[in-house]
Hints:
alpha+beta; 2 domains; 6-stranded antiparallel sheet; elongated
Amino acid sequence: MRLLFPFIYERYLARQIYAAFGFILFALVALFLFFDILSELGSIKGAYTLPLALLHVLLKAPSRISEIIPIAGLIGGIYVFAMLASQSEFTILRIAGLDAKRGLLTLAKIALPLIVLTLIISEGVGPYTENLSEKIRMKALGSAYTSQFKTGVWVKDRLRDEDGNGPIRPGVRYVNVGKIEKDNEIANIRMYEFDDMYRLLSIRSAVSGQFDQMGTWVLNEVTETRFTETKQTDSLEPVYTAHTYKHPTISLVSEVTPQILGVLLISPEKMSILSLGRFISHLQDNKQDIQRHAIAFWKKVIYPLTIFVMLALALPFAYLKVRAGSVGFKVFGGIMLGMSFQLFNSLFSNVGLLGSWPPLLTALTPPLFYFLLAILGLRWVSKS
């Protein structure tokens, strides 16, 4: 049966879902921010006052919003469909010709603005405010970015001729950065350079360094030790000589940018798609493992689409009779479904990482599984 006035019912459903979604999203974000504020109270000292702590937490709100949007969509959708079922409004829509396929198509249209909103927040607003939030906290506390390792951050780089400023040549450079200060400044730098046979060529240390506008690192108070092989008649017992040099400053061209260093200090799940793409390219150029970051990349790409999956999971609740459970019980079921999706998504990512499964398959399986669950549930309740 052809549905009468399709645009009217689509606008009606969209208005109801958006209203419930907005209210639930606000409530969930407020709850999470409250706990964030409580955890931040212990860091208040000196120049880092309570207003700055509140500002720090509020600037993290966009990141929280992007994480919660799918769950808010699921709970909001279940609430709206349960209310429509309790008031027999959804029964009227079914009589007018709203079948399961048309319902899914309608939900896809309703989910599209939410998908765009999620992309804007997670890829634009969220990373910017997150970075600004950390800068405010760092400036107030007078601290710097440090890694979870006592020895600092380690990163692999490629060698260049002419003291590190010429074309790329065979070999590798391992860079260790003790601290990353604000405004593209680093401190306690060490570099170990090896040739293509992994023979040590030089050791370089610097007290501090800055990344200039020309795309090079300017290192200060540099001590460099170079190792050269002395020609001997017996090639099985080579002799090496070491020469130590001190430089007030040197310039060094490197593929290790402040953005890459910043990426190393945060989990891949909190990075933007563009940042992940750049870092994965850097890892591939240096023949390093990309599995964890590739899984995070595809999860970030697919994540906005989970909003439609969550709304599809909510649709079967519209077919349940009022006697099958109250609205509150259905909303509680939606919360459990959302939590199970988040847990399954995280668990499957770790299993895929351990098993070295294809990253796209690892990221795509949980949403596909829950979408299949939504289709099966929809077919079951529509026949009852």
